[in-house]
Amino acid sequence: MRSIQPTAPGLGVCSVIASPWCERTGRPCGRPSRPGYTRADGGGFPVRTCYGRQGPAHEDDAFLVAETTHAAGLRTPRHEHPFACAHVVLSGVYEEESGGARVSAGVGDVVLKPAGVAHSNRFGLGGSRTLRVQFDASALGTMRRAMPAGLTAFDLTPASGITARLRAELSSPDGFTPLVVHGLCLELLGEALDAGRRVGRGAPALRRAAEALRSVPSERLSIGAIAQDVGVNRTHLARLFRRAYGCSMGEYARAARLSRALRLLESGDDPIAQVAVRSGFSDQSHLTRACRRLVGVTPTQWRRRSRA
């Protein structure tokens, strides 16, 4: 895997990722208006266009990983990609339409589509950021059998720690980054494909339970209270939730709480102690321990890297 470095200004259209983004208006302009990224050796994935501003990126023969910021209210023309894609929503709303099927994904969701699917995109009025993993399905080995035949979206909150570690690795690469990023891509796609195979996730009671766990990031939440609210026996709810999401309700809540904290660290300048409390942690030390354990960096380091 090689880092994809920004091309120098004035060198023309980038050969790997073109960003039709106008720096003056913040809107798509139909042509590359800022430096993109190019492989020095000219290899890897073919020329492509991405409707957004590219952040840190890495590429090898199996994966292209890039963080992308999309303009508020952007609507893309119909297009397709020669490789399969997974888009993990980091902020905002990401909508995609293909052949009459439409998915709307929010923070923590992943949108999966196989290669060659013609589609268009629409992004929320607040804009959107996504982590895009473009891949050759043959790299998945036996997992490729679980790849959906069409456009699909799943809640990937339980894998938010993998997403965060991948982003941290992209922002501060070293000699081991190729090995780490390749492994994390396989983990992330494995989680996404497992999510697609699980049954019952669309049940209204489970959706409401997951929403409660995401919207109230507090350790004071109880399974009993959520079960009563959604009208399901708590033992039955606990079993159904693990079957549908691949983790316990407590593990899901923990991942959602950390995901919220990381978003607040990126998007604002509130003191870390205040971010910790707003996210449901007892104090700054509690947040720092969680960040170190699940992401490998402190909250201060995460904020600094996200703005580099």
Explain how this protein is built.
This protein is an alpha+beta fold and 308 residues long. The protein has two domains: 2-197, Jelly Rolls, CATH 2.60.120.280; 204-306, Arc Repressor Mutant, subunit A, CATH 1.10.10. Helices cover 36% and strands 23% of the residues. It is built from nine helices and twelve strands. The chain has helices at 160-171, 177-197, 204-215, 223-230, 234-245, 249-267, 272-279, 284-294, 299-306; strands spanning 2-3, 5-6, 17-18, 37-38, 48-49, 53-59, 63-70, 84-98, 101-105, 109-113, 120-135, 152-155. The strands form three sheets. Strands 1, 6, 7, 8, 9, 10, 11 and 12 form an eight-stranded antiparallel sheet that branches. Strand 6 and strand 7 (63-70) form a beta hairpin. The longest helix is centred in the middle third of the chain and has 21 residues, at 177-197. It is globular and about 45 Å long. The two termini are 22 Å apart. Mean pLDDT is 79; it is low at 1-48.
